[in-house]
Amino acid sequence: MSTVLVTGGLGYIGSHTVVELIEAGHQVIVVDDLSNADKDVLQGIQGITGTAPAFEMLDLRDRSGVKDLFKRHQQIDGVIHFAASKAVGESVENPLLYYENNINSLVYLLQNCNENGVKNFIFSSSCTVYGQPEQNPITEDSPVQPAVSPYGNTKQIGEEILYDSCGAYGLKCISLRYFNPIGAHASAQIGELPKGVPANLVPFITQTAAGIREQLAVFGDDYPTADGSCIRDYIHVVDLAKAHVVALERLFQGNNTDKYEVFNIGTGQGSSVLEVIRAFEKVSGKPLNYQVVDRRPGDVISVYADTTKAREVLGWHAIHSLEEALDSAWRWERRIRNLDR
User: What is the pTM of this model?
Assistant: First the structure.
């Protein structure tokens, strides 16, 4: 049994990955500062798996705290690093917060991995490293473009730090460049629960449908796409979580061909914002109150993945449809709002 440290493990993607790790037989240590998560998520994880992972409340910007963490848990075999600030718009408004949180935490983790002989590292990267792509679908060989937001830049810088660390310290790392995770666990015991106003499309959709938000904003309908709205590759969060487990086991088994590898994790299918709205209305049976507003700074026009490499090398592919993901997100929203009672 391997022991895996999961940073940001009570967050949206982190919690689903913790579930998949436990169900794959791994022991998990969760680290989270609860800045964008709730400790009650531990109950959801235990409800699904029957196992309560070890939990450490820690802000990874606390350098001495990270060192103490590794001293207390000397059995760590691998790290999956999710903990980061991730809202594009907020990063434009407050770039220094993003550089401090996303870069410092990564550096402190890697320093302690090196000092404690932890060689296996999975990085939560993003398709934002491609910027506004020259063409779609995007392969891993597509050029990394100048970042269109500080958030995207922190992911580019993070990948560069990892590449250099692999060369210098013998680290083995896989960066998963994933696209737009949506949906919730089939049990509806865990899902996306942003604090404050959602920065992502689907929780804003479900909160609008639930009456929490008065209206959904569509940021622009004048882009050069079929219906004028932005196009993204929306992947079910459970599919995404499973990709992390497969990638980590690739490192554990020594199957990585290079010390540093990158994989696109998406569906390979682009959907526009208006298409997502229509798909949600179909699966939920609820019309959405939405309004087209001005474009949002930092948004790219269209981005979706070529997933050939993940399929051929990792043996992974997404299995859930857009409609399945939206249906699970709506069931989660109804559960947490007690709408079915």
Answer: 0.95
